[in-house]
Amino acid sequence: MHKQVKSTCCYCGVGCGLLIETDKDRIVGVRGDPEHPANLGRLCTKGASLHLTARPDYRLLHPELRRQRQLPRQRVGWEQALDHAAERFAEIIAAHGPDSVAFYISGQLLTEDYYVFNKLAKGLIGTNNVDTNSRLCMSSAVAGYKQTLGADAPPCCYEDIAVTDCLLIAGANPAVAHPIVFRRIEDARAANPGLRIIVIDPRRSESAAIADLHLALKPGTDIALYNGLLHVLLGEDLVDREYIAAHTEGFAALEQTVAAFPPAVVAEICALAEAEIIQAARWFGRSAAALSLYCQGLNQSSHGTHNNAALIHLHLATGQIGRPGAGPFSLTGQPNAMGGREVGGLANLLSAHRDLANPEHRAEVARLWGLPSVPAQPGKAAVELFAALKRGEIKAVWIACTNPAQSLPDQGTVRAALQAADFVVLQEAFANTDTAAYADLMLPATTWGEKEGTVTNSERCITHITPAVSRPGEARADWEIVVDFARRLGARLAQPLTGQLFPYASPEAIFNEHRESTRGRDLDITGLSYALLDSAGPQQWPFPEGASSGRRRLYADGVFPTPSGRARFVAVEHRPTAESTDDTHSISLLSGRLRDQWHGMSRTGTVARLFNLDDEPLLSMHPADLRQRGLVSGDVAHVGNARGQLHVRVKPDAGLLRGRAWLPMHWGSQFMNSAGVNALTLSACDPFSQQPELKHAAVAVARADLPWQLVILRQAGAGELAALALLARARTLLADFAFASVGLYGRSEPLVVFRAAHGEALPESRLQEIDALFGLDADDAAIVYADQRRQISKRAIAPDGKLIGIRLAGETLAQSWLKEVMAAEVEGPGGSDGAAAGLDPALIRWALAPIGKRPGKLPQRSRVVCNCADISEAQIKADLDGGATLTILQEKRKCGTFCGSCLPELRQMVASQAQRSATEAVA
User: Are 698 and 580 in contact (CB under 8 A)?
Assistant: First the structure.
């Protein structure tokens, strides 16, 4: 029975609304919700493929426990699992005190989940050791807003993008990290050709490609640049002295500071042209409305808070805040990092934006919870939490919905900490994250499409979501797990108020308590309820009792939530990166995101089409830096520093200046034989936000002496599940090679792609074992080439002339075109639906030739026009030849109904077909 359920996307902080389509309690499709204010029906490639991730087959479905580290985990029931957890926590707390345990949670939890975790730690146990992976992405934005504006509240809304005259994008790449926001930017540019777009990024990113001015500053020099821009604004009388006098404080001290940052000095510090600095300041200062969008490039720094403050200064100095098209707009990284911040889900916060250090705030929370007090000692923030775990100061850690064994910096230290812990609980929906290897107890949690609660997006907009399908196996809602555990632990701790603390029978009861905690606060939502959110749709906070709507923009009256009611200028000085390059470690390594992957890929890494744009981790460097090291595209490089090392293939990128390299953050030990980029990053943190400098590390890059290479391409059979089973088997080989990576590729019948390199050739017997693992050992359909002298061995399996698998060892030049041909063969001739008749045998011979170079003529794989729906040009042309209109195309293929970026081309194709038809009719 088909039904449709409103929900939101579980990826980035844009908070796009979804319509989930179900059939017989299975999620079978998604499309954008045209009524949701965040996206108005648009979706990106990740969101558009969410239904393909909604299979229970690779989920954690039952609790698993091991009583000794050297033993494997065994399936247990929920009673045994939670009783064991409560006993272990109670024993540790009794022996070592409340601060000997900790909770590390996630910006992907719902607000209600976050609230009960916070209450469990700070209310029941009496420790503030509860922190979140939002510490890694948004805590500097929190601290920056609080230092300058007085509260953690983005003052803008998405509608501001359409009405701004100058858009400053700093340390963000919304084209890939927030694609639906970027669609709004493209729309604004189309509607207003006079819009000036400035992008500040050390790398020429996809967002920088549309900029009128790209400032490729030296990593770590953000504060110097913003001080320099303010210097120009002051010198050219582009500041608003009346606004400064009426609504701010501290400007005189800052004015003295920025006097030392004239454009010539800033140009030298930032490695920029002086004229570009002046131009950027003039565009910002002379615009009727200036809006800034910023994200991890500012936040993930050892001076991230002051990076934020220095940018916010530009808005305060020019009065560009509190009105349409103007203001400093932090783009949230995760879907509910905002909700977590609202309920105090950080080690230094309490519910409703209260500060733990404030005695009045602690007393208010204690009264709300019916407790004598809540602990005053700040808890351990993320990096220090795991350092304390390694030292033995923290004995037990409960991790929920996050993967610290990939996402935290300095992975060698983090993994050693998890190994040293007395007890590790992992509350997760997926069984194969890197952190799972360290878990003593695994608790299966529900995930996207199965949960009820609320989320808050980047523009302070709250959405109520409800389950679309039943929970799989024995999975339970995150809040239910916490409440059940809390009741059991409270009994063992003889805490008489446990029942009073955790009376909840539904997420709505938790929301109602959270709502009451906000009364009179800056984020007052006492006027909201599940019923109102369901009837009126998502709402922005604040939404106090008696209000008819939320507030789109904050501080329109020039009054700020500070003791004086004035915004504050902060004396910020230029600081370099925490780690500088030197003669040995001469490359500045930058990390970032890709359009089609999310975090550690536990979800997106199960969908083959999301690998089609980027199917392996690649280190990007300037072509001259590659040449200097004897590297060409596709070679394997050794990248390392004192913290770790990895091997990765390289590619040239002229958008990077010399001395800089870029590596995506998504790949970890599930897809390569290292912890990924965070094997190299350092744990230096911002002193105010405790956010680590994940964006930059100094590394040495050299050509790896790994002459013998191996590539395997294998179709696993119809559908994604067969490919995932083969992918799991292929992962067992990663540790056998100096370099190895594995992933997916293709569409309806995915390929598993395994790449490796080694210092010497594997013996034939080992290759035979690998062939068997990939199902390449069938003799009746095998085509073989071997040259023992040159250590080349190739084997293809092509039953009935259809190439389904190939292993290239010793020489792998054919890998790139073979991958395309095999994917095209599955897709069908010219991109049509259905299977191809078979691959030309001559092409198989080319692949197995001594030098597998690209043949002169290859089957053409039709270009994909709609990436979201994965629809090719050939499919669209076939439909148009059959008389399809744009409406029919959208209904049949769903193309143009997600993010909308393909609509201009679709309209052009429809118009061209109509013109051809008219010409033919006249003829």
Answer: yes
